[in-house]
Predict the 3D structure of the following.
Amino acid sequence: MVCGGFTCSKNALCSLNVVYMLVGLLLIGVAAWGKGFGIVSSIHIIGGVIAVGFFLLLISIVGLIGALNHHQVMLFFYMVILFLVFLFQFGVSCSCLAMNRGQQEKLLNTTWDMMSNDTKKSLEQQLDCCGLVNSTLSQEQFKVDVQLCTAPCKTSPAGKCLTCGDKMLQHSAEALKILGGVGLFFSFTEILGVWLAVRYRNQKDPRANPSAFL
């Protein structure tokens, strides 16, 4: 048996999908852990992470079953969906790596506006800050956020809190680089999965009937 043959391609594709399955289970577990310990209270954030984990788990199961059974239809849908995921993840990862401070502030403002008051309170308590950015454009919203804020710093003797925007922007560049780098790495594992699926799908099972087409 040489590497690149039928069995080698099958084992490599199965191993890759087992890794995707573990990552999917990890995402679901982390989301449930965060919810259970009260780290993140927003049902939208928890639901989003669980949905991504469940989707990755589902795709990996389809790929694993297709690889084990050399199922042509399942392998075809697997490589098409995985290629679309690669395109999306590659674009997002490159955007994270190329984002400057002005774009980061704009993204934070957009995300903050979409949050509910409960999510904002939870984030303020975790980061020990009040409001997002005290700017002219969002001063009214900032005053409302500070008034509703329940962060520990508000009841401290000094009574002065940093804005959450300042705290998040301190580490956002580093976080985006890590996020973009990890996403870029996994996007190349996805294109590897597509290549393996195409290669494996076009190979003939040596144990099958030699007169069969597939």
Remarks:
- DSSP finds seven helices and no strands in the chain.
- Residues 37-41 have pLDDT under 50 and may be disordered.
- The first helix runs from residue 6 to 36.
